[in-house]
Specification:
Strand order of the largest sheet: 1-2-3
Largest sheet: 3 strands, antiparallel
Number of helices: 13
CATH architecture of the largest domain: Orthogonal Bundle
CATH superfamily of the largest domain: Intergrase catalytic core
Number of domains: 2
Radius of gyration: 24 Å
Helix content: 55-70%
Number of strands: 3
Shape: globular
Structural class: mainly alpha
Strand content: under 5%
CATH class of the largest domain: Mainly Alpha
């Protein structure tokens, strides 16, 4: 019993120290890096798995962790998650150990030389211009729900907003006179995106009385609201997209992000430069935006194969 008690106290000390380091790291991500709640949840989920593995091995976070320990942990994940997910977990672990090194909690970074598994690049799914038009024209503009729906769809296609960015938009973020919106993307980075004439027209229609019908004398700072003035959630936007896609009889798998991909692809096809598209999408790196050049190349090859007499 005596030795059982000592062992239990030792395990609790390890867990307490691990939790302190993890909590400090999460606070750093939230406060100093300004990451979104979704990103924080993702980091926390990965750290929980990593921490459990270390605990099972009797390892303390701040010392004695080797490159082999981390590679063994990543290897243990291969049966339950995809290479993409393993790469994300490795990215979390790297960020965590760099934090420990920076805070002088540990003297080395065991994750430094570990290579991420090779992941096959999947091209983003996008809609043709005709398919986008079919979706946009589905909304019943004789109802307040249809007008709100059309305003949402037009805004997403006109700006390439992420669904989380759309749901977080406030009235103060819209400047209809100038024709721009202001939004906060990943890492709370703010960007300005042009609206375009059609999206502006439907936003004006929504704001000229329709929004008040949803508010019912309640007050909300958010642009898109539902019955009783509550904020329209990301899940609600997903349901709207699913409904209009079915009504438009589009057979492709379509999500809110598909409209974002379509926005970027159509801009590139019509001659927009990558830097401008990067800025409008809010990508931190141009390499992320370059995926759309691959889409364009694949599409050109398909057109060539289909129409050239000697393809």
């Amino acid at each position: 019993m005596f030795f059982d008690s000592i062992y239990k106290d030792w395990r609790l000390q390890i867990e307490d120290r691990r939790n302190v380091y993890f909590d400090s790291f999460i606070d750093y991500l939230r406060v100093e890096k300004g990451l979104s709640n979704n990103s924080i949840i993702s980091y926390s989920h990965d750290l929980k798995k990593y921490g459990q593995y270390l605990e099972d091995k009797g390892l303390v976070v701040s010392s004695k962790i080797t490159r082999r320990d981390i590679t063994d942990f990543l290897f243990s994940l291969r049966k339950e998650v995809s290479p993409t997910s393993i790469s994300r977990v490795l990215s979390t672990i790297r960020s965590f150990h760099r934090f420990l090194l920076r805070e002088k909690i540990s003297s080395s970074d065991p994750s430094e030389l570990i290579e991420a598994p090779k992941v096959e690049k999947k091209l983003p799914n996008f809609l043709t211009f005709d398919e986008v038009i079919r979706i946009l024209k589905v909304s019943n503009l004789k109802t307040r729900y249809g007008i709100r729906e059309r305003a949402i769809l037009e805004l997403m296609y006109a700006t390439g907003l992420r669904v989380s960015e759309l749901a977080a938009l406030k009235i103060s973020d819209i400047n209809l006179e100038v024709g721009f919106i202001k939004c906060k993307g990943k890492g709370s980075k703010e960007r300005i995106v042009p609206l375009g004439g059609v999206a502006k027209k439907f936003l004006e229609k929504y704001l000229s009385g329709i929004r008040d019908l949803f508010l019912k004398e309640k007050i909300s700072f958010f642009l898109f609201v539902r019955q009783g003035g509550k904020t329209l959630s990301r899940q609600s936007v997903w349901k709207i997209i699913k409904k209009v896609v079915e009504k438009a009889q589009i057979k492709k798998k379509v999500s809110p992000h598909t409209l974002r991909h379509s926005f970027a692809t159509h801009l590139l096809e019509r001659g927009a430069d990558l830097r401008s598209i990067q800025e409008m999408l809010g990508h931190a790196s141009i390499t992320t935006t370059q995926i759309y050049t691959h889409i364009n190349q694949v599409r050109l090859k398909e057109i060539h194969r289909k129409f050239h007499p000697r393809a």
